[in-house]
Amino acid sequence: MSWLLNILQAFSFLILLYSVVLFFFYMAIGAYAVLETRDYVHKNGFTDYRMLASSPHAPSISIIAPAYNEGATIVENVRSLLSIYYSKLELIVVNDGSKDDCLQKMIDTYQLEKIDFFVRYQIPTKPVRGVYKSKNPVFKKLIVVDKENGGKADALNVGINVSSHDYTICIDVDCILEQDAILRMVKPFMEETKKKVIASGGVIRIANSCEVEDGRLVKVHLPEDYLPRMQSLEYIRAFLLGRMAWSRLNGLLLISGAFGAFDKEVVIKCGGYDHNTVGEDMELVVRMRRYMEERKEPYKVTFIPDPLCWTEAPANYKILGRQRNRWTRGTFETLKFHKKLFFNPKYGLLGMLSYPYWFFFEMLAPIIEFLGFIIFLVMTFLGMIDWETFAALLLFIISFGYVYSAFAIFMEVTTYNQYKRKSEIIKLLLSAFSEPFNFHPFVVWSGVQGYINIIRKKKAWGDMTRQGFQKKTATQK
Amino acid sequence: MLEEDDTKEIPFHIPAKFVKHFKNPAKRQFLIEELINMKRNFTGGTGDNIVKLYLQLGLKKDSLAKFQSLTWHKKARGIHELYVMQQEDVIPKIFKHTNNPNEFVRMEAQTAMISFLGFEGLRFLDVVTFPISDWQQIKILEQLRPLDVGEMKGIDKWLSSANDTVIIFALKLADIYQQFQVYEQVAKCLEHKEEKIRIQAVQTLVRIEEETTASTLAEQYFKEKFTNRLNILNNIIEIATDNEKSFLLRQLDDENNFLKLGAARVIGRCCQNGMSILQQKALEQPEPYEQIYYHVKREFGK
Questions:
Q1: Are residues A111 and A182 in the same domain?
Q2: What is the mean predicted confidence (pLDDT) over B92-96?
Q3: Total domain count for chain A?
């Protein structure tokens, strides 16, 4: 049995090493995030965004919003997006072969008519059945494309083919954008002079329990339900710390599919979104970066910390589990497609730091944590646990996780401070206590299920049933 | 109080309960920011009163201290406050920073010059060697928009600047303010190695066109790659005539669908019997010309 003991001890050592490296990464991420946020606030503290909104010299933007079976909320969602403050804007809603009355509702409400439109298939997609524009000049910014069902990536590619503007902002149709979201997202593309900005991401915030009127967010509240509240904390940590730090290093690999801006020319040159993965948002960013690296063109992927996009988070374990399962598969597929980057010095920081970090600490994290737990049980059974050391380490890890979350909340309060009531901040801090015992194990288990699906070759996207903001608002009133 | 007109000579009365707070630097900064926000939204008498209050409270000293700071963001903020509060005595000092190595200090100094001097403030273009970002260019153009057009002294010099972004900005000025006198220099920009300059030159040439502009652009087309080719087709639509018909018909057969559609739009709009030509092409080769024909027909309502 000595070989088993050796294996178990070796594994324990590897887990310890893994944790120590991760610990230093978190420390570095915290420090970099502070520096980046401070610089961002200094640079933009007195920026007047209003001048860009009406300027004839502003760059033209296409918002692309794919919709599949969104009949229940599509009219409100489109109304919300049409209210965005920017003059050179077109809103392209792509109906991805919905089986419900999504298209008909848009036709009726926005007085749409089918027009003759020559679709330039620069990126191959499923066929377009028709392009619609409104007879009413009030909705002149709206273009609705009806196409055969092909998935989210295919729908986004159709939007890019139809788009006639310089930059594209890809969003989830049910997201609520702040009025000045486009103005803020466009700025990074225009202020860089030495490098080409190929993509820019924005913060996604959780809209559950928030008050929404006419498609606009009128009052922010911390989610009342446990799961959305935990996701609020998770998003604050991920966006205000993680993404800001990677942005400073110019090492961002992911721009959330819910809200991201792209240089259309580079997207087309890269071939658009890949419909062979469920992680099409991350895959596109990695491919764009790889494209620029291979051509040795200086480039940048930026991220802005302003809370610009609000979305409804899964409120039950079933839907959350599906989402995290899909994220794991998406990360795995993306990193597999681009395995050439792994510790490849030819790709600089992308190959030597960003990719390995994602590989070890994002993609492998659920597996390592799960295996760690199993081995812990085996070692307990074999009486190999030094309980004093175990208790000290456990306490340290839980405390560190808690301090890290508290630091993220502190960053939020000192910068954008969306939750004005002290009770909400206290609630958020208290929620962090339960994370290691409830929310986190569930997320890890969902990731493990993602791997099981990879092994079984299941490729389903998984439905994202939404409660809808309307209903929530009504109940609050 | 700030909206009263007859307060020119009399200082504002500040209640003592407020004055005690002015010793705290953070509160002074808060006050400056509030006044700056108000000043942005008010002109005339109210705007003057805001400046008066700013001076009366000794806040200019704070702004000058920031301006003299070695920290970039403090310096930029100091410049911002001074120009919003129209402190013209600092113009010569601020001008020196229009080519500051720090882009944010530089940007604020350039913005300040336009705010103080309008079109005359553009003289910083003579000296700036660092790039002017697209964001800064738009900001300056928007600052200039409400002003009466002044004489643009130096535009010919800017068009041959060693700084590519100065050339692009000068091309935009020539376009917006129709500076016909620099046509030759703009045309010369078509030979520039930088594509962004050639793209802007095409747009400007169309705006200040001469009789030969369309044929010049048709010739230029063959020296360009896709982006500027499409740009030429999109712009030539304003000035093309039947003289360009053979050039356009050739582009109608291009492999690239964007260029096909671009050429079709110009033919449909600018050439005699243009729509009939497109219709004929659609009959001969329905895929893809039928869709192109209907697209153009719908776009121009023909």
A1: yes
A2: 96
A3: 2
